[in-house]
Amino acid sequence: MRAGGSSRERKGSVQKRQKGYLGTAVAARVGANSSVDARVRRYYAFQILVAFQIWSPFWTIWLFNHFTYFVGTIVDVIFWIVSLLVAMPAGAFADRYGRKRAVVLGVAIWMTGIISFGLSDSFVTFALSNAIWAFGAGFLWGAGSAYLYDTLVEVHAEARYPAVTSRAALYSYLGTALASLVGGVIILTTARLDLTLVLYGVPGLGALVLGLTFQEPSVPRKPESSMFGQIAAGLRTARGNRQIVLVIFFQVLVGFVSYMMALFRGVFLNQTLSGDLVVVAIIYCGFYVVAAISGGLTGRFMNRFGEWGGLVLVFVMVFAPFPVIYLIAQRAFSSDFAGILAVLTQLPDYVVWGIEAVLITTIINRRVGSDGRATVLAIEMFCSTLVIAIVEPVAGLVATDYSLGTGLAMGALVASIPTAYILAAYRRNERVLARPAAPGAPTRGR
């Protein structure tokens, strides 16, 4: 769905589209255009390095090798509690002091937490490492999207954000796919899960160095006089736009279900595939290729089917596989067929991974001005984190007392009903509005 701008911007967008330029509005100078092109490419490279997560298929196996499902989820909840505490202050920090500073600080702390996680061997060290990891993630997640959007706003190219962030998702997930294979090689040659976390310091350091070369977007911002004021302003903006409120609740529910599947995916596949970690790594590589293709196509999908079409696709992809997952857990199939189904039921979730960040950040960025963009994105993360922190131990307890597949299916069933209601409410509200708000301008959305 397109966002409206001034008549001058619309006229300029036609000229630029004919030339195949990244943006849709006439920039002041060719030199400025080239500079933004280079900055976007640098952002792509940064995302690839951050996403080169050789630990991705193995970190939960490393965690649950030390603890039961229930205790392991308690360790993981510490990540989400810290994220909860950091999310809105980190977003306010990015709005007040700059996106670049938040991104650089975030990637440095994020990398430190991951390395420390690989060196952990007790509840205390795992918990502390998760807290560090979460602190960095809080700064990194929202600020990255705000940095990219404002970089495009600088040359009036914000209407192209879905396409640009789709390409970033494509490159990122291809990087994670390759990293999964590298992780499999490390496991094959060393039989050490911890090294996949410790060696993440190499791409992490590369991302840190590249982040230091970022240029802060030249977009006028009028932040509030204090961090508390910045957070309060962001809350007012989010609360005042009905579509933002609905999409936050939608993301809270589907994000929880998707994360529960992701948390236990390595263990689920490891159990189903009889502990062959190299095969697990190869399968993860395929998963991330699916996510890359999905992310790369999201911009085109949104142009054709709009925001609501993207939300419907996410809903179907998240909830549809869980009846089959439940049947696998009940041993309704032969072991060989169950292994095939276990892999196939994971694919829709990776379609969601490719779509989710592009879709949600596009919806929010279109409706929030630069003054509070990172803060509102952080509020969305805060709400998602709050639910995970509360409910995750329950899912871990169910998985411990019953079975992994049963626990996952029960969680999905509970979440599917309110998610469907929110989806319908978003559609009704979309029909009320003649068109989305102008890019970069907040609206009440009622």
Taking the sheet with the most strands, its summary is: none
* Overall number of strands: 0
Query: What CATH first level would be assigned?
Result: Mainly Alpha
Mean pLDDT: 83
Could you walk me through the main structural features you see in this protein, from its secondary elements to its overall organization?
The structure is a single chain. By secondary structure, the chain is mostly helical. The chain has one domain (38-215, 225-432): Up-down Bundle (Growth Hormone, Chain: A), CATH 1.20.1250. It is 78% helix and 0% strand. It is built from 17 helices and no strands. The chain has helices spanning 7-18, 30-50, 59-64, 69-97, 99-118, 123-153, 161-190, 194-198, 201-211, 227-240, 242-272, 277-319, 322-329, 335-344, 347-367, 373-401, 404-432. The longest helix is centred in the last third of the chain and has 43 residues, at 277-319. The model is unreliable at 1-30 and 436-446 (pLDDT under 50).
